[in-house]
């Protein structure tokens, strides 16, 4: 069976590897399709597509938007088969990237105050920037904390510094994000639904609301799911007529997450990527 990974991050958001490196890894693992879905960033797509052509991996242009819905914030909506060159969309992302950079600086300032209080040398923003190919994310700061010996590993860096010194993100309203993805020819999918709430009744309400706003799919097969979660998400997708997708949410710094395999048990069928592409093609045809 041909396998895929539709949720991977590069150093253009909070991953640590270049897009071309991720595509080469996908080719090595025999994946048929890959989507580098960076947070609020599309800068790595052209590089990934070119490398995909060279290595025979179908690279699907994608993005991951941080959204809010009622009292829920930091829901993530994936957009697939998007026109990533659309000027209005890129302008919108530039605003989010600027907010992301400011957030990175504010988090670093809080961490440096904590380090100085412990009589430790502060971190340099330039050192953090050198880890990022685009906007600064918390994992980039985490890597510098580890490299400077202030944390044992990324988990330790998050526990001791990044979570206590966190600064809220800027979010797009969910309806606006879904409409924007559709406007640029894309297919919208809710990423890792179990992160939203453990309460399945509440999760069903969230999915229903998003479906009413035009959501196209659910990331049924993901890192944060046990088998019974995936079965529940399959039922939800069926109930609301949503497509199913899956991906590892690989960033490149995790010890226990592999591209294409997640925590070892992930196997996402190529047919799911084909269904996403079919829906995008149908919409394009109907607008032509």
Automatic annotation (TrEMBL):
Record InterPro entries: PHP_dom, PHP_domain, Pol/His_phosphatase_N, Pol/histidinol_Pase-like
Where's the Polymerase/histidinol phosphatase N-terminal domain?
4-69
Source species, domain of life? Bacteria
One Pfam family of this chain? PHP
UniProt cross-references to SUPFAM superfamilies, sorted A to Z: PHP domain-like
Residues in the signal sequence: none
Gene Ontology molecular function terms on file: 5'-3' DNA exonuclease activity; 5'-3' RNA exonuclease activity
Q: Please name the PANTHER family in this protein's record.
A: EXONUCLEASE (PTHR42924), POLYMERASE_HISTIDINOL PHOSPHATASE N-TERMINAL DOMAIN-CONTAINING PROTEIN (PTHR42924:SF3)
Protein name stated in the entry? Metal-dependent phosphoesterase, PHP family
